[in-house]
User: Fold Tetraspanin-8-like from Monopterus albus.
Amino acid sequence: MPLLFQSQVCNSPNVFIMYPGWERGGSMQRNAVVVVADKTSLKRPFIFTNAVHMALCFFMLMMTIAWHRDLIQTGKMVSTVSIVLMYIIEISCLLLSVLGIFGACKGKRWCLILYAAGMAAASQTIFVRTALNYQDVYEKRVVREESKLLSMMPLSATSKANRTFLYSIQEEFECCGLIEGYKDWGSSIPPSCNCQYPGKCIRLRGSAILGAPKNHYVYQEPCLPIYVSELKLAFSLTMGIQFGSGVFWVVLLVMSIKLMGQIKRKQEFMTLLQSNRYVPGAF
Assistant:
């Protein structure tokens, strides 16, 4: 009756010694030694990559929770569908990573099959979504925001909420006004236009603006071109992150498929070896 013993070589998890033997008179005699290399070389890289992916998904989930909490506290209205979709995507990414790591550690091909199916669906969805939404996000939403700012003109007569919004833009981007700089505010230039950086300032003399102090410095550049440029950059980065996520998921998909093949070949090899029909060089 063929029996099989297995032990690791030099404490290496990827190399094993197989001892096939036969029982003779109740005692075991080893008549051959076969050195077997574990062919699942993608196991550790796959686990590490999924651990990184899981950490990123967890970080994004925490950011979404914090953002959602802030929206509730400030009373801002955001589409519930968008928030729910973000939660579903991020939680699904976490669960897929856990499933992939479990399948790789335990050598469960069915786990990796489910993992690969999930990654294929996720990557295809994000590629299609990015391609279809690019024009809408990059062009229509930018034009919408630009029109929203232009509707606030003249700034001297705009609402208090609009003024507060413009003050924050001027402080953040170090600019003043929308189109013609400080002139858009008329005689009531807000403190958010005050400038302390010589390269970005323009000096106003007392006679230039009614009521302005002598040698008053304000930001020279108008805010509209800067704001639109930053908005386009933010949308481009968002699209880039989405596309990069899709590429990363495709890489994980390919790794899972290759790992499934390695696990299958290893299982077939072990079955053949245990049947005592192993031929050196067959694998």
